[in-house]
Amino acid sequence: MLTIAISKGRLQDETLALFARAGLEADGAELNSRRLIVSAIGARCRFVFVKPADVPTYVEYGVADAGVCGRDVLLEARAEVHEPLDLGLGRCRIAVAGRREVVGEDYNLLATVRVATKYPRVTADYFHERGIPIEVVTLAGSVELAPLLGLSDRIVDLVETGRTLRENGLEVIDVITESTARLIVNRASFHLKRSEVSGLVTALAGVV
């Protein structure tokens, strides 16, 4: 049996719909309950529902054979997993943003740039590659609030439409990278369950 970790939240419905088209449909009765482990109809497969940031951990440690999460999560987690397929879901950007009045401002005007983010590793890599000294402020939510209250000079966050930024007087300064949902696979499962994993990848690739 394959155990597949699914990101709860914005990707969940799209992911389950994609798996259903690939012939791996979650049991509706179980899905509508409060269960966190749900079986697939007529297949040796089950889904476990976890927070997006936890998907790479479950897969890396082999608790789940495979999982689906955003590339943004993978870049931050740096888990040792295989990434055989881009599912193309949840397309968005990891971007640097700030108040409208500072867009285009030279970073040299700031001795150290204070950046609020949910992605401290991605943020540090981006600024260090450019030789810009930073102080990272790690937040769990409402990152857009940080520059409005003077907690940070910039933010690094996930941007889909940009509406939240605009409504809070913020603008994208630079796009670090694009992000879409990826299928990831545990390294041991990739070899020990080669037939099942290959079947999963082939089925999903046929409906992406």
Summarize this, please?
Helices cover 31% and strands 31% of the residues. With 208 residues, it is an alpha/beta fold.
What would your notes on this structure say?
By secondary structure, this protein is α/β, with parallel strands linked by helices. The chain has two domains: 115 residues, Periplasmic binding protein-like II (D-Maltodextrin-Binding Protein, domain 2), CATH 3.40.190.10; 87 residues, D-Maltodextrin-Binding Protein, domain 2. The protein is 31% helix and 31% strand. The strands form two sheets. A six-stranded mixed β-sheet has the order 2-3-1-4-11-5.
Which key phrases capture this entry?
single chain, 208 residues, alpha/beta, D-Maltodextrin-Binding Protein, domain 2, 2 domains, five-stranded mixed sheet, 9 helices
